[in-house]
Amino acid sequence: MNNHIIKTRLLVIGSNGMLGQRIVERYINDDSVEMKCASAEPESFIPGVNYSQIDISQKYQVRELILNFFPDFVINAAAYTNVDKSETEKETAWKINVNGAENIALYSWTIDAHMIHFSTDYVFDGKNGPYSEIDKPNPICYYGRTKLASENSVRVSGVRSTIIRTNILYGPVRNGRPDFVRWVVDSLTKEENIKIVTDQIGNPTFIDDLAEAVSSVIKFKKEGIFNIGGRNFISRYTFTELIAEFFNLDKKLITPILTSELYQPAPRPLKSGLLTLKAETELGYKPTDLTASFEIIRSRLSL
Ligand SMILES: NC(=O)c1ccc[n+]([C@@H]2O[C@H](COP(=O)([O-])OP(=O)(O)OC[C@H]3O[C@@H](n4cnc5c(N)ncnc54)[C@H](OP(=O)(O)O)[C@@H]3O)[C@@H](O)[C@H]2O)c1
After folding, report:
1. Ligand 1 mean position to 76 CA, how many Å?
2. How many domains, the chain?
């Protein structure tokens, strides 16, 4: 008798992004999953996957992708993530972050797929973080506004959905631009001076933890908003010092600076970060220790 395993059909959109790549790597050898990947580039950064190029702002492309693959779960890790450029490239940021999410929600709803969408602590103003899932958003930059609008679009679309808010992603990314840890390690190794803000607080999130949270959402079919973040609520400066200490690099190359001294186009939420009690209780979420996460990065990237 043939034992047919019914595989979960998983569509990962934005599969070439920092988070997208880790989600793909999490499922690539999972026999219980039939995975399809899609992202903006003509080729997949991770070889050997079923891949299509997609522009999520184009409704007909999203329709083709979703209706042809007929997924059980659609993960949207694609986004316009350049916070400063969003202030001037407003139309592009809106088209990708809001219209893109709307398109994915619409066709996921059409086939009754469950959509998992990512958002950010930048939906908050950073006056009194860390924030829980029920705190009232009040974005202070255009990127934050697009991400809040994306959440609202997904929620009103009627699709079964999970919105995962997260902040300050880091982890072992092999392709594309380096994550924050890699950037700090590379800069300090080259003995470059780096200026890091002391007044932006958050809980840096290890992308492997996010990928595990996605897997729990799929396993338990949990809907609603969930915060996913790390254990440590720290300033960007302290985070950078801890990276330097772990990788035995010269901390004196790190100069403390205030956000106001950087004159960035987009205002940043300062006292931010995301409380993860709901995810711990309902998803069994357990963030990895900072040191353990650095060890994983060192061994995976041979740093
Ligand atoms: N990184 C963080 O610290 C952070 C913090 C909080 C929340 N988040 C959220 O987490 C999610 C993943 O972020 P990430 O850091 O992995 O972002 P990322 O590395 O910038 O990845 C986003 C991916 O989406 C692709 N993309 C952009 N426009 C597209 C389009 N029109 N159609 C299809 N794909 C498109 C990008 O391609 P190109 O590179 O070619 O543009 C990129 O591969 C996002 O929703 C983001 O808002 C991230």
Report:
1. 9
2. 1
pTM: 0.97
Question: 245 in a domain, yes or no?
Answer: no
94 CA from centroid of ligand 1 (Å)? 13
Gap from CA of 72 to ligand 1 centroid (Å): 22
Q: CA-to-CA distance for 275 and 203, rounded, in angstroms?
A: 9
The answer to whether position 72 is within a domain reads yes
Which atom of ligand 1 approaches the CA of 95 most closely?
Answer: 31
Contact 50, 68 (CB under 8 A): no
Assess if residue 293 is contained within a domain. Answer: no
Residue 36 lies in domain: 8-176+204-230+274-288
> For residue 106, what is the domain's CATH number?
3.40.50.720
**DSSP secondary structure string for all residues of 187-199:** HHHTT--EEEESS
How buried is 70 (Cβ within 10 angstroms: 0-12 exposed, 13-18 middle, 19+ buried)?
exposed
* Per-residue model confidence (pLDDT) at position 1: 54
For residue 103, is it within any domain? Answer: yes
> What's the pLDDT tens digit per position in 244-269?
999 999 999 999 999 999 999 999 99
Residue minimizing CA distance to atom 40 of ligand 1: 40
